[in-house]
Specification:
single chain; BVU_3817_N_sf
């Protein structure tokens, strides 16, 4: 699953694709049907990459990427984000086993399910993340490279000449006394 470049913007509903950056801010394109392009100010807007989001776990934090993969693989149907809290909790226990039930609120579950419904039709679920793809030729190329010993830095036992302190210039004050 490839969620690289997909961000959530603080204060705005929905998800956005990071298109670029200019001096005024980030250029974002909405993932909804309208494809609205906005420029989010660098200094005031907070962006959260879906690739980096985690959910509180009892032992370790759970990555959102793994939860999304579990939702995709879920045998039952995914509930609507407007479903009651009990249905969301039972579904979330199934797709995110080991999440901390005290720290993960129903609003968080609704947000994740809403994001899933926005992303499910995009080809992101069939793509692999760029960091997971390994180029076999690059690995073979690394094996052919001879390891050269690193150049050892020269010891810096010689001290740099110390600067001599120069006396501070005295301010010359000229005063004229009136007669």
């Amino acid at each position: 699953m490839n969620l690289r470049g997909i961000v959530a913007v603080s204060g705005r509903p929905g998800l956005f694709k990071l298109v670029g950056q200019n001096k005024g801010g980030y250029v974002l394109e909405g993932l909804d049907a309208q494809k609205v392009k906005i420029v989010a100010n660098i200094t005031t807007t907070k962006l959260a990459s879906l690739e980096d989001i985690t959910v509180y776990g009892e032992d370790d934090d759970l990555k959102l990427v793994n939860i999304m993969a579990n939702i995709t693989a879920a045998k039952g149907s995914v509930p609507d984000a407007k479903a009651d809290a009990k249905a969301l909790r039972t579904f979330f226990e199934e797709v995110a086993p080991g999440h901390d039930q005290e720290k993960v609120y129903t609003s968080d579950m609704k947000k994740i399910i809403t994001w899933y419904h926005l992303l499910k039709d995009l080809p992101l679920f069939s793509e692999e993340a760029p960091s997971e793809v390994v180029d076999q030729e690059a690995i073979k190329g690394e094996e052919k490279v001879e390891k050269k010993p690193k150049a050892t830095p020269k010891p810096s036992n010689a001290k740099a000449p110390a600067k001599t302190a120069q006396p501070a210039k005295k301010a010359s004050m000229t005063s004229k006394k009136g007669v």
